[in-house]
Amino acid sequence: MNSTEQPSCPHATKEHHRMKRTVVPSFTENEELKELLQLYKSNKIRTTKYSFLSFLPKNVFEQLHRFANVYFIFLAALNFVPVVEAFQPEIALVPIVLVLSLTALKDICEDYRRFKTDRLINGLLCRVYSSTQQSYVDQCWKNVQVGDFVHLSCNEIIPADMLLLYSSDPHGVCYIETANLDGETNLKQRQVVSDFPLQGEEFTPESFHSRIECENPNNDLSRFRGYMEHSNGVRVGLHSGNLLLRSCTIRNTETVVGIVVYAGHETKAMMNNSGPRYKRSKLEKHLNTDILWCVVLLFVMCLTAAIGHGLWMNSFKESIFQVDTETPPALAGFYIFWTMVIVLQVLIPISLYVSIEIVKLGQIYFIHNDLSLYNKQLDSRIQCRALNITEDLGQIQYLFSDKTGTLTENKMVFCRCSIFGVEYPHEENARRLEVYESENTETAVCSVTLKSGYSGKSLSCRSLSCNRSSVSLHTLTAEPMEEDQLSGHVQPRTGAFCSRMVRFSHTHQTSCFMELTYITDFFLALAICNSVVVSSPNQPRHVVKVKLMFQRFSFSPFSALSPSQIKGSPHSLKSRLFIRGKRGSLTLSTPVSNTTDVSGSSQENDSKPDLSAREEEEQDITDELVYEAESPDEAALVHAARAYRCTLRGRSAESLLVDLPGIGSLAIQLLHILPFDSNRKRMSVVVRHPLTGQVVVFTKGADSVIMDLTEVYSHIKEKTQKHLDAYAREGLRTLCIAKKVLKEDEYDLWLKAHMLAESSIENREELLLESAQRLETNLTLLGTTGIVDRLQEEVPETIAALQRAGIKVWVLTGDKQETAINIAYACKLLCASDKLLTANCGSKDACAALFEDLILEVQGGESLTALTGNGESMSSSFILVTDGRTLGWALEDELRSNFLELSRRCKAVICCRSTPLQKSQVVQLIRDHLGVMTLAVGDGANDVSMIQVADVGIGISGQEGMQAVMSSDFAISRFKHLSKLLLVHGHWCYSRLANMIQYFIYKNVMYVNLLFWYQFFCGFSGSVMTNSWVLILFNLIFTSAPPLIYGILNQDLPADTLMELPELYQDAQTSKTFVPYMFWITVLDAFYQSLVCFFVPYFAYAGSDVGVLSFGSPINASALFIILLHQVIESNTLTWIHMVVLVLSCTSYFGFVLLLSGFCVTCSPPVNPLGIELLQMSHSLFYITCVLTTVAALLPRYAHTHTLQKLMYR
């Protein structure tokens, strides 16, 4: 059926499959191609780790990767060797079987949830073309194969990665919502493969005879390379705009048909699904060191017992009782070594790892349900995506923050603009636009008219040292009578956009016309140079249908204005372009066509006699517009253009529908879109100008890039630069707008090269970048915009608290240096007394010299402080500010050490104009070379890399999608939540876990030492004075629950105190909670308590005829009370839950031993515990011994803890 060339042999087919992917219809008759399609994965997904048969061996194998599990399996097996057997072999299996079973149960529950999700997704239905039935039939997702044709309708989820071949939209466009993929709810445009010959008619898969060659599956959501080769040999390039991604939702078209190119686990969505993040916490790394020390301690104790047993055996030459004389003392000592390893096995805390996982889940539960971290406006609470690094929140030393959307709201409002070197004040309209946009956000309904109480002129703007219009932009919609009353006399209306000089001189019509041209193109660029989707609020997921709109306008877009008007009557043109609406109001959406003008009313009426009636038909549609933008900047600019009556009303793949004031709706031919990328830092659209018919490139982007690409009059560029600097000083975000007029032959030449780049499968991105750069040269600067982005609430207070907590805050932003510094002052990162160290270098050598000078300057400040003795180091007053180019040099090997030396001595660092890669490199540099705990926080896709590199990554669910959240360890909705998360929850989590780990080590060492001391009285024979069941279950069951409650609920300090005194956060880091020597202090305390616990009962029962188990009964009971009450002393919080758990622990122990004593006869050979506990508990000596032992053991601990608490609260 397919006439394209195919591989000639199966071997070639497989080799071809490894290099790239060939896709043809699944019903092809070519056997080799059928075999090739069978090599691709089906659409069935399986995220489970286990199957019914593989669960047991695979799960056990995974658990064997944990050293403690291997250790205890070894001990259980060793206990089956008769010569080293310590007690019944089956009893030795209890600890490891219990731990492995609990872990396996947890794993199988998690895997079963994944299984149910997989079954649900695989069972979803979609319509797939059947060649036998010649129609689309319902099939489950799991049965979809590469090469299948899938038919989708509006609001259906895409089952696999498909190449878009047909759309019911006549322009071949469809829109998808990618919320299931990246969290973004704005619509994204996709279009049918260019030059596909089947548009405009019903698509039939049988007529598809093309072959698709594309790249092999990868996880890059923004890239797709390939080409489609038709049966006539013509190749058409494919790109990401042609690909419909799995899990996305069709939102605007009635019918979409695509051919599956990637299915199942080869889709981009599945290849990006890496599951929950796993990081090892700093505390967990320290824990491994402590476990190794426990192993060393165990070895020493076992070796001591082995040597003691050998000496003891050697001391009996003629024994009065039976002794094994056949085994040499050395060999007997060797056997005892392994016997003691089995006896003292509880020294290694096997249950500690499971307990830590349980405690972290409990901590995450309380963090997740903290109401102070809940955002009521967004109905959003904190998300804990990494389950095992909660304690690292209490150890942060460096915080790296993005600026836009993290420190600020990322809700942009168009504030000021400069056009043709003239700045236009916009403060009143900025306030009104802010209200306008907030109403759109809250109600999703666009208001038609906003009342204004302001007069035609703006007198509230501060003067700048540059040429500036005396008239605010919002006067363009003021009524003539209003302006006449303000000015005191009637004068010809020349509009708001001419400068003051032009308004009062009719001899400068050429200058006024040029300014008018700039103004027109400036606002036209704001309206169309974007990827904004225009939708309806009543049907928010259906894009406004612009097809009928385009067809209703019978006039040519280039006939609205005659050449004579364009060339000879600037005042007429200007008044026609920006006419005035009703008194006291700013009409945002509906162009007013019935307002006459002194100089051009007759021509206006002649040029479009039926436009008013047609506009009335479309008025409802215009009033009901909602803009869905990929970034808040785009939304702010489109809203600003609409406020000034340049309204974007609709968009298709080939056309834009725009309202121009005084003219009405015009269909603008859209030739190309060159999207924004981080390399170019700009985007462009190529259109045919609606007024001149010329091919025009409109470009908007960062001023640092656009200003270098423009060729304008030097005085205009100079004035614009002054305005840019002024905007930056006021903390505004700036963008430059430029254009370029192309001749037809220039455009044709560029188009050929660009089409070649689009059709290329190799190096497509590089070729497209070169093509865009060739076009975006010799631009004409139109003007610049200033957009305000307010700080989030409580940002200054949060940063001040973090700095008081000893956390160094760095700001890594792509904004201008002046803007970043202004925001830093606003958020109190910089104070008036701080000294700025600016590093903006033109070369690497200059950068090296500057760093050395700055280091000397900082060291000089430190020396001065040391001499004067004024307390804190002067280095805290230095702030380093660097641009992107200097930062790039600083990250190189030659200058890295100087940069580290300088930055660590500064109070804060601000990196401006930094790229996403530079952000991650800075975080990695500080983390690795300074050995500190780092935290990165951001809200956008450009922050993902640094969030993933940092020890703790925090995403903010803001205005730029959910990429940062999906890549983070924790997700919050506001920057202010960091203070509670770190200062309170971070402090608690670290303190709880550190103390719980020490407690586990303490109680294990303490109990094991009781067995060790007994060896001195039994010839180091490996005998024990307690029942083997009690020995195994003592640490595993009876004393395991209280530490869990302690680790989840303990609060060493109240939350209010931690928030009021952030210094306590740093004190916890520098305290002796979990430092190496505290391990040995804990061990020594356990040794002391074990000595008391063993020898007090020993001397109490000395000279009596009690048996071994009777002697061990008060020792075990005293050990239980000591261990439980030790935790009570250490606890700062005691609730009814603590008391219930403590009572249950005691009840479980005494209940077990009493049952064992009452009914067990042969359950613990060779000893018989029958009646022993009952007899002991009937004597008063038992209780006196327990009380005396407990008090003597805990008295030093109580005195030490009570003294520390007094010092702390003093």
Automatic annotation (TrEMBL):
EC number: 7.6.2.1
Organism, scientific name: Astatotilapia calliptera
Protein name: Phospholipid-transporting ATPase
Location of the P-type ATPase N-terminal domain: 37-91
Positions contributing to Mg(2+) binding: D402, T404, D939, D943
GO biological process, one term: phospholipid translocation
NAD listed as a keyword: no
Database matches in InterPro entries: ATPase_P-typ_cyto_dom_N (IPR023299), ATPase_P-typ_P_site (IPR018303), ATPase_P-typ_TM_dom_sf (IPR023298), ATPase_P-typ_transduc_dom_A_sf (IPR008250), HAD-like_sf (IPR036412), HAD_sf (IPR023214), P-type_ATPase_IV (IPR006539), P-type_ATPase_N (IPR032631)
Gene name of the encoded protein: ATP10D
